[in-house]
TrEMBL record:
This is Lipoprotein. PROSITE patterns: PROKAR_LIPOPROTEIN. Residues 1-19 form the signal peptide. It comes from the Bacteria. Keywords: Signal.
Length: 122
């Protein structure tokens, strides 16, 4: 049993030294949406610091790249909103080089919804 412990420990230690993660803030937007919205209509704030993500995992070979618009759509869907304000966009990476990569975009901001127009307006 002792003969197996040292190689396994050495392997686990090596992997932990080689693995890494990084976060890059790549953009800040005042307002952002992927929908067609009429901004002349009244709106209401439905959430603060709402987060949307689009992730991709690479296991030895890449399986595509994440997209910012998918992360925005995820945030709009999660909070049932129409547009976002005060948005930070981050690119995040976790990797074990040459074996495993997890890359994603994360958008975080305030979520707004267009108020429904009532048919009985004067």
């Amino acid at each position: 049993m002792k003969n197996l412990f040292y190689p396994l420990f050495l392997f686990a230690f090596s992997v932990s030294l080689l693995s890494g993660c990084a976060t890059f803030e790549i953009a800040h937007f005042s307002m952002l949406t992927t929908k067609n919205v009429d901004l002349s209509q009244p709106s209401e704030k439905v959430g603060s610091k709402v987060i949307g993500k689009d992730k991709r995992i690479w296991f030895i070979i890449p399986f595509g790249l994440p997209r910012i618009d998918n992360a925005v759509n995820d945030a709009l869907k999660n909070g049932n909103g129409d547009f976002m304000t005060d948005i930070d966009v981050e690119h995040r990476v976790f990797s074990i080089p040459l074996i495993y990569y997890r890359v994603w975009y994360e958008v975080k901001g305030n979520l707004w919804r267009i108020k429904p127009v009532s048919g009985n307006a004067p």
